[in-house]
Design a protein that fits this description.
This protein has helices spanning about 15-25, 55-65, 80-95, 110-115, 125-140, 180-190, 200-215, 235-240, 245-250, 260-270, 285-295; strands at about 5-10, 30-35, 70, 75, 100-105, 145-150, 155-160, 170-175, 190-195, 225-230, 255, 275-280. About 45% of the residues are buried. Helix 2 (about 55-65) runs parallel beside helix 3 (about 80-95), helix 3 crosses helix 5 (about 125-140) and helix 6 (about 180-190) crosses helix 7. The protein has a single domain, classed as TIM Barrel. It has 11 helices and 12 strands.
Length: about 300
């Protein structure tokens, strides 16, 4: 069964607005709400710095909701030690009563790294950090005791107590890189998420993920696959939400009539999407989210 969710961006919005939005989204029947991990707005502009911190807001999401899965798409391995992230997501799992998902990625927003004095190495190094980091997360979230010896991270008989509420807290990888990201996903992840690609591109990447799974002897159906898409019933809405990025996200955006939007969603499902998330940017258009929930008959 396809899950429909909403991915709530944390830029240019207050905590009160977020909390109200989460309550409404949950009431509308969606099954997933997630947050992103940025220090600046996701525009790449060096003066666009109004953005709430992700771990604290993820915890708030846990406390403000009662039914939906609560995810992160995705925490950056370059910002936080994976052992610290494991402790944080475990606490969030307890706050939510066992509804938390852990998403991790290699990071991309160099403007944030530069502004905060965090090293932004070449892609190969960031991918190596991701591959080590997800193994650390798997150990601490899924096992009682973890030792790990890597180039970037080392654990020695490490324990994560109290344990998460969930016996196996799901770990997601975000990104569309076909040589490393999808290979890491095949080896270590429970879920995979990619934003703003057309259904045919999603299908192609999904097939590459399946090839990587076959190489490591894993059933590709064990990995939940999710697409993040925009929702803009009109061109004006698309421009208002995404501005200079409108053309970049256009192919991964739901737009048009109700029938056209439902048809586009059907194309993603046929392409292998187990989950479809609407990516919201402030100011949130919750009436559009409600219109979609009605079209999907979520309530």
């Amino acid at each position: 069964m396809t899950v429909f969710g909403v991915h709530t961006g944390l830029q240019h919005i207050s905590t009160d607005e977020l909390r109200a939005a989460w309550r409404r989204i949950e009431a509308l029947g969606y099954g997933w709400i997630s947050i992103w991990d940025h220090f600046y707005g996701a525009t790449g502009k060096p003066d666009d710095a109004e953005c709430l911190e992700a771990v604290a807001i993820h915890a708030a999401l846990a406390c403000e909701t009662s039914r939906v899965r609560i995810g992160s798409l995705v925490y950056s391995i370059g910002y936080r030690h994976p052992a610290v992230l494991a402790k944080a997501i475990t606490a969030i799992d307890h706050l939510s009563g066992g509804r938390a998902d852990m998403g991790i990625g290699a990071g991309w927003a160099q403007v944030e790294y530069d502004a905060y004095g965090i090293a932004f190495p070449e892609p190969k190094v960031r991918m190596n950090q991701l591959e080590e980091g997800i193994q650390v997360l798997r150990g601490l979230l899924h096992n009682d005791v973890t030792s790990f010896a890597g180039e970037y991270f080392n654990l020695h008989q490490a324990r994560n107590e109290p344990r998460p509420v969930q016996a196996k807290l799901p770990i997601w990888v975000g990104g569309g890189g076909e040589k490393r990201t999808l290979k890491i996903t095949a080896r270590y992840a429970d879920g995979w998420n990619v934003p703003f690609v057309a259904p045919e591109e999603f299908k192609r990447k999904r097939s590459i993920l399946a090839e990587h799974c076959n190489t490591v002897g894993r059933d590709a159906d064990e990995i939940r696959c999710a697409i993040n898409v925009g929702l803009a019933w009109t061109e004006d809405s698309l421009q208002a939400q995404f501005g200079q990025l409108a053309n970049y996200v256009r192919n991964g955006c739901l737009t048009g009539t109700d029938e056209q939007v439902l048809d586009r969603i059907g194309q993603y499902v046929e392409a292998g999407a187990d989950q479809v998330n609407i990516a919201l940017r402030a100011p949130f258009d919750l009436d559009a989210i409600e219109r979609l929930s009605v079209a999907l008959k979520l309530t």
